[in-house]
Amino acid sequence: MQHNDEEDHVCISIGRKLDGLFPSSTGCFIFKVHDQLRKVNEKAYEPDIISIGPYHHGKNNLQMMEEHKLRYLQYRLREKKESLQRYVVAMRELEGKVRRCYAEPLNLNEDELIEMMLLDGFFIVELVRKFRMSNLRQGDDPIFEVEWIVNSLQHDLLLFENQLPFFVLCKLFDMIEVQDNHKRFIHLTLHFFSDLFPGPAYRGSFDGDQNIKYLLELIHNNWLPSFEESENTDDSKKERNWQFIPSVTELAESGMKFEKIGGNSFDIKFRNGVMQIPTLTIEDRTESFFRNLIAYEEYHQSSYFHFIVDYVKFMDCLIDSPKDVEILCRSGIIDNWLGDDEAVSNMFNKLNDHVTGPGVHFHYAGVFNEVNKHCSKHRNKWMAKLRRSYLDSPWAIIAVLASFVLLVLTLLQTVYTMKG
Fold first, then answer.
1. Residue 379: pLDDT band by 50, 70, 90 thresholds?
2. By mean pLDDT, which of 135-144, 161-170, 329-338 is the weakest?
3. How far is Cα 310 from Cα 315, in angstroms, rounded to an integer?
4. What is the DSSP string of 128-183?
5. Between vectors from CA 272 to CA 267 and to CA 275, what angle results, nearest 5°?
6. Is 29 exposed, middle or buried (0-12, 13-18, 19+ CB in 10 A)?
7. What is the distance between the alpha carbons of residues 385 and 363, in angstroms, rounded to a whole number?
8. How many CA atoms lie within 13 A of 162 on its CB side?
9. Is 143:68 a contact under the CB 8 Å cutoff?
10. What is the pLDDT of residue 378?
11. Beta-bridge partners for 146
12. Helix (H) or strand (E) holding 399
């Protein structure tokens, strides 16, 4: 039976859905974490005490910091005798641009979004200023009186979904301090987050905001491998064919040594049977820090910049069990503030779940090839088998030595008997 289009319920249903679609925003760059990544560890992407931006705005468990946002604004207006209207007008001019930055539809009208932009952005700017310059703080500011609050804020402000466009922060900084001195704002911001970095890294020179999209991107682009710039342009030297390497325990059985070195966290080297790795500090916030940087790289088009994913995959290969973590801790390569080797092992074994990569630009392909070449040598394979079969415990070593001594004594006795 044929239906007229005007009466066809399927046409009506689809038509309503088409009419209800939001316009696609090609310029958006603030996303939500995709479900597969989130399900591995949902807590790693959720703020503890503060919402920034619209995705977590209004949640009941984050209301404590809303009063602090208001107090920071109030203190500034009273201290400098400034007009609130001045800031509102500035944010209203940016409202449409800010709305287009978010990939998800926002349940905030124009005035609500402007209020959120002002309170969230003003708080961040004042926070990093007060952190660096204690003379700007109010005497009874609990944020700087209670250490865990600053630690939680450092964590929350770098969550992938908890972001405000960087141009909003720069505009407010212009109005609070001096026009177009964004390099100073970047310096203050990096100083605020310095305790969160698990290890040292190369930091590029920043002249202005250089099209930084948000705080997480700023941190990502300032925790770089020193080889990033040269590898970015020298594609001919990249090794395309490589295989994963064995765990620390297996490598140690083949006679490989592990050595802590200073310098950049990502600059891992393999020389003359020695794996040289800079120290990595692991504490309560480290997993979330890695996960949100990985989420950022998942939505970044260029695989050149996926060095966090590559580094985590490298460590995941090395670490299969708590025993591997123990060896790296003894070598000074891992500084375990968690106090639990199994927790560190589990962290690295799950960080790459549902993560794309490593890609064709895998930064550690050369190291992997050198390690595998070392392990494939006949002498090293024989040593690994010997250690695994006969030298895996103190009693086994004693038994081997006793057998060796007995063999020597037997040979000597035979020789003396023949001579006699």
1. very low
2. 135-144
3. 9
4. HHHHH-GGGS-TT-HHHHSHHHHHHHHHHTT-TTS---HHHHHHHHHHHS-TT-HH
5. 40
6. middle
7. 30
8. 26
9. yes
10. 47
11. none
12. helix 394-419
Contact status, residue 278 vs residue 358, Cβ threshold 8 Å: no
- Per residue in 67-121, pLDDT (tens digit) is 999 999 999 999 999 999 999 999 999 999 999 999 999 999 999 999 999 999 9
Q: How far apart are CA 280 and CA 275, in angstroms?
A: 14
- Residue labelled with tokens 């630690």: 151
The DSSP secondary-structure symbol of 194 reads G
Identify whether the C-beta of residue 40 lies closer than 8 Å to the C-beta of residue 168.
Answer: no
Predicted confidence band of residue 304 (pLDDT cuts 50, 70, 90): low
Q: Which helix (H) or strand (E) holds 191?
A: helix 182-193
Edge-to-edge, what's the strand order for the sheet holding 274-278?
A: 257-261, 274-278, 269-271
Residue with tokens 């009273």: 78
User: In angstroms, what CA-CA distances link 207 with 158, 182, 187?
Assistant: 22, 8, 11
With CA atoms as reference, report the closest residue to 384 among 289, 293, 281, 256.
256
Q: What angle do CA 148, 154, 156 make, to 5 degrees?
A: 100
Neighbours of 415 (CB within 10 A): 10
- The answer to whether 117 touches 166, Cβ cutoff 8 Å, is no
Return the H-helix or E-strand segment holding 80: helix 64-80
Mean pLDDT of the chain: 87
Comparing C-alpha atoms, which of 330, 344, 333, 342 is closest to residue 286?
Answer: 344
237-272 burial: b if 16+ Cβ within 10 Å, else e: eeeeebeebbbbbbbbbbbbebeebeebbbbbebee
Q: 375: which DSSP letter?
A: H
DSSP code per residue over 33-71: PPHHHHHH-GGGGS-SS---SSTTTT-GGGTHHHHHHHH
CB within 8 A of 128, min separation 6: which ones? 185, 188, 189, 191, 192
Q: How far is CA 211 from the centre of its chain?
A: 20
Q: What is the pLDDT of residue 161?
A: 98
pLDDT score, position 52? 98
∠ Cα 279 281 282 (to 5°): 140
Residue tagged 């100073």 (tokens): 184
> pTM score, two decimals?
0.85
| Token pair in block for residue 240 | 């395309």
